[in-house]
Amino acid sequence: xxxxxxxxxxxxxxxxxxxxxxxxxxxxxxxxxxxxxxxxxxxxxxxxxxxxxxxxxxxxxxxxxxxxxxxxxxxxxxxxxxxxxxxxxxxxxxxxxxxxxxxxxxxxxxxxxxxxxxxxxxxxxxxxxxxxxxxxxxxxxxxxxxxxxxxxxxxxxxxxxxxxxxxxxxxxxxxxxxxxxxxxxxxxxxxxxxxxxxxxxxxxxxxxxxxxxxxxxxxxxxxxxxxxxxxxxx
Length: 234
Hints:
By secondary structure, this protein is of the alpha/beta class. The protein has eight helices and five strands; from the N terminus they run βαβαβααβααβαα. Helix 2 links the parallel strand 2 and strand 3 (about 60-65).
């Protein structure tokens, strides 16, 4: 039997990345998951990433330490309050870029995923970014992904030698959160293993009020499904 094509999948442990991993597996890829311990206040998501990786059967799960607290500039990596109870309008891109944006995070993560892909002989990278139902992050837009894809071919040995053309897969980019959830459920994703909250309690319960919790809860409601995560205030 022919060996499966390899793909590197960015896996945060959240709902979107778990779904992107399931999509990669459903498309026949041998998935190599990469997660980042970057000094995020919700580092509990790394435990979720481990559980998701095991449940969806990855070939290998790599956890990389990149402490972005050194540069700060985000409510997720600095002493800045996480916004709570923002309105639906404020959650859209029209509301501006929120303080939970981590400077250059996806560029850093994709660069490290690209390096690992080159070592593995893979040309496919999956990332669960979304341009519709998201919090206004500039590094989740299609034009950003397209630019990174072009850069990948210019910046790698495999690309320069013409042996590979890298592809950044964004299977969720045009989906609503409800559509993402329906897709994941159809592919067997156990969302009880995932973690989305930006400001969880020490025992791992989600706050139910931050942007990520609100988007998640709204998505499950619109999908007609029950969110299996525990909340302090749903």
